[in-house]
Amino acid sequence: MLRKLLTLFAALCTAVGVAVMLPAASAGAAPACVTAWNSSTVYTGGKTASYNGRNWYAKWWTQNERPGSSDVWRDEGACGTGGGDDGGQNNGFVVSEAQFNQMFPNRNPFYTYAGLVNALKSYPAFANTGSDTVKKQEAAAFLANVSHETAGLYYIVEQNTANYPHYCDAGKPYGCPAGQAAYYGRGPIQLSWNFNYKAAGDALGIDLLNNPWRVEQDPAVAMSTGLWYWNTQNGPGTMTGHNAMVNGAGFGETIRSINGTLECNGGNPAQVQSRVTRYQQFTQILGVPTGANLYC
């Protein structure tokens, strides 16, 4: 109503030759991106998904129909992180969205840049410690290992289903409430075992012990579990991936922390080389040297 009155007032003033500046309408922040579209998920009418930086609404039942490719999806507009920030375009992360897309040209639509940026909030020291070179080296190291673990951010879950029942340590006091075969590898560093789901969930404030499927349903949760491991877990190594990169131990020590028991000390040189090659490619994209100690 106020704006209508101001508009009428402006029209009257214009008629008598007086210039009036109306206040510009405020452009609200883009809404947050909902859970990313997944080709294997069944969407019934009313369900939503995000894809290519936009939210979409399913009008009726659909599966494996990419948003924007058919009339089943209604475009709800551009989305970001919400809250009036920059829409998830960068938020200070040393890897731009364009560089992320260059690193993962064939990634599954589930893995989004916005999901990664949202996950950074849980671990602000990641890729934000030391010099600009060190920050970019750490980002490249994490993403290189992630790329190796998921075939370029293509796989969301572990492909060898025969392993699924093995990841339940029933001797833990909390057991395996989601089922013996529920704790298979998921996400960018393939989180597995009931005790890791509990530890990651406790650290992130999410009940992953009872609902491990969230890691394969929510891009931000998936990326958060990867960052949880990278920033807090030594694995079979002697330090976290984060500490290895910011303290100068080198990329090789990040391999040891993730899968050193099977790959390092000559255990599987081809797998180690795969990780190193990706790291070399990613540091080149970010314009920084690799640093020393590439191998384990």
Automatic annotation (TrEMBL):
Q: Name one Pfam family in it.
A: Glyco_hydro_19
Any one of the GO BP annotations: cell wall macromolecule catabolic process
Which positions make up the signal peptide?
1-29
Active-site residue list: E149 (proton donor)
Q: Which organism is it from?
A: Streptomyces cinereoruber
Q: Which cysteines are joined by disulfide bonds?
A: C168-C176, C264-C296
Kindly give the InterPro entries that the UniProt entry links to this protein: CBM5/12 (IPR003610), CBM_sf_5/12 (IPR036573), Glyco_hydro_19 (IPR016283), Glyco_hydro_19_cat (IPR000726), Lysozyme-like_dom_sf (IPR023346)
This protein's name: Chitinase
Q: Which GO terms describe its cellular component?
A: extracellular region
- Tell me a Gene Ontology molecular-function term this record carries: chitinase activity
Keyword annotations for this protein? Disulfide bond, Hydrolase, Plant defense, Signal
Q: Which CDD domains match?
A: ChiC_BD, chitinase_GH19
Q: Could you tell me which residue ranges the Chitin-binding type-3 domain spans?
A: 34-76
Q: Is Signal one of the keywords UniProt gives this record?
A: yes
In terms of Gene3D superfamilies, this protein maps to: 1.10.530.10, Carbohydrate-binding module superfamily 5/12, Endochitinase, domain 2
